[in-house]
Structure formats: structure tokens, C-alpha cells
Design a protein that fits this description.
The protein is of the alpha+beta class and 378 residues long. The protein has 2 domains: 144 residues, 2,3-Dihydroxybiphenyl 1,2-Dioxygenase, domain 1 (Roll), CATH 3.10.180; 197 residues, 2,3-Dihydroxybiphenyl 1,2-Dioxygenase, domain 1, CATH 3.10.180. The chain contains 9 helices and 17 strands. The strands form 2 sheets. It has a 9-stranded mixed sheet with strand order 6-7-8-5-1-4-3-2-9. The structure holds fe (ii) ion.
Length: 378
Amino acid sequence: MDTLQPTAPNSATANTEDFLPLLGTDYVEFYVGNAKQAAYYYQSAWGYEVIAYAGPETGVKDRASYVLQQGKIRMVLTASLEPDSIISEHVKKHGDGVKVLALWVDDAEKALAETLKRGAKQYAPLEVKTDADGEVRTASIHTYGDTVHTFVERKNYNGAFMPGYTKMVSKTPVKSVGLKYIDHCVGNVGWGEMNTWVKFYEDVLGFKVIISFDDQDISTEYSALMSKVVANGNEFVKFPINEPAEGKKKSQIEEYLDFYHGPGVQHIAVATDNILETVADLRSRGIEFLQVPDTYYDDLLARVGNIEEDFEEVRRLNILIDRDDQGYLLQLFTKPVEDRPTLFYEIIQRRGARAFGKGNFKALFEAIEREQERRGTL
Ligand code: FE2
């Protein structure tokens, strides 16, 4: 059974003031090869609505950005219009991938100052952006790989997204699949680098380790990984950090690092309050999920106890369930959503559980290995 086990007490707990209060994830920005087509995919397959746009038609000459929203989840898809730019370099090296994990703050200037003071490396200085709808302040710091955190202060803004973007709506009707908010975003880092990045989140952003898994927890006959979950004070923002571990064959994390050419965001977990409907809907729109064998369901109820969902539906949709001290969770993972086996999504519904589904790791990683085998990368 999966339990929440705080690891070593944080020595900084004596200092109870949260120097970086976070209101949540503000947005996730992808750098992609073709933002127009990616936006179509996220609208038609995932049910996100376009809410804003920036590009040549709005006076932005070097890029096109589509802002999409579903529930509280906001994504920005940005493509370069030029061969030599940070965006095109990012796409050339990584393929489509996450550039920015933006954090919603009350005071961007203070967020930048506090994190720089604690050792953050600045990516972009404080910028004050204004238009007729008010003001947004942003500032950015580096994290693992080429990924950055942007602090976004929007308390004095009433527009669609932020100055520089024009309000836009989807051109065809979009039907939501019931996604509500980002539950967690997972980073893959290189061999032996997990603790370095965990320490970065502890020291620089004031996060705490809430769970850790070692290679005994997360291994199959062939491959292994290690993982620690860091969270901010109110746990609105949770970042599991994975590193590969030695196994007989290639770890899925190693495969990611090979294809992404470095550390980066591995998966984004999006929450629903009706996973049966959400997953049935996504499947009908062509989203592919990892498949666990039907034997997974043989002892499932014995392992997790009573559930509110219809068990036959859970089984038919191949949804996974795990329990911790506080409740249970239902989850399911897509196959990679791009040509490179890098980024994928997790659909999660929490019924009290605060953990991450450790009881499903073995079945899941065996499913991932079957996919790796098909790609010739195991
Ligand atoms: Fe996850």
C-alpha cells in the first residue's frame, strides 16, 4: 500500500515564513514546430478552447502563440517564424516540448528577488507589460535542462491572457473532456542529478519533499528509476523529479533523455472529477493510452477495497487504481503524444488519496517496456 512518507525533516522548517507563496500553475508553454496544427489537436482531441493569440496579425513578427484553456488549465503553444531563434533551436534539439512552467504569484518582483538571493539563475528580468486591460508582471528563472519557471503576477489584469495577446475564440465548436486543473508536472533529469534538483527546489523555491521512491519501489525485471516529489507550502504545485537507475535494460527515463537530448518535462498530470467519462471521451477521439493486461484487474478490488465507480467500466476503459491512507485515486497514462517518445499525459482523479499510484508502477512500467520494445529502445 502506498503511503505518504515525508523523508528527512527539512532543516529550514524553523523559518516558517513562505518566501515564495504560490497561487498555482499559471500556464504551461510548449515550443512547437507548428502551433496552428498543435492548437487544432488540443482543441479537437483534448477539448481545450482557444482564448487568446499573438502573432503577425497582432503585431508580433517573430512567432505565433495560441493560448488554450480547459477548466483552470492554461496552455500556450508557440512556434517560431524564423530559423534562428530560441524557439527554433529548442524545437530542433528537443522536438515539441515544454519550455515554461509558469507559476502564479502575487508579487513577481519579490519572487524573482527571493529566488535569485537563494541561488536561482535568471532567465528573464522583471517585465511590466501593459495594455487597455491592465498590467501583468513577469520574471523567469532557469530550472532543469532548457526549461524555465516564469513568475506571473496578474492581480491588476482583466484581459484574456496577458498584454501582447489578443482575445481569440475557437473557430469550430469545442467539447470539453472535463479536465479541471494540473495536478503535477514531472521532470526527468540525468543520471545522479535527482538530488541536485530536489535541493534546488528546496533551497531556491522553498519546496519540500513530500514523497520519495527508490529503485526498489520502481523497478521491473528490466528497468528502474528513482523519483522524489517536491511541493510548495500549500501543495498547489507538485513537481516529481525522476532520474534513471541501473537495470538490465534501458530505463524509460534514459530513453526520454536520449530522445529529448537532455532533461525536460516528462508528463503533465491533468485532473478530472469523472475519469470514466473523460477517458471514454478521449479514447473516442483517438487518444492512445498505455494498456495493462487484464490480469491487473484480477486482484484489484482486494488490493484497493471498495470504489464508487462501476468496476466493469473501470476495467473496460483499462483505468488503474491505487489507495493510500487517505483514500484512493484513479489514473491512466497516454502513450507519448509526439513522434519522439518524450512527453505524455496522465489523467488522474483523486478520491482522497494524495499519493501518486505507487501500487501501479510495476504494471505501468511493464506496459511502457512493451512500448519501448516496439520502438527498439529497450
Ligand atoms: Fe504522475
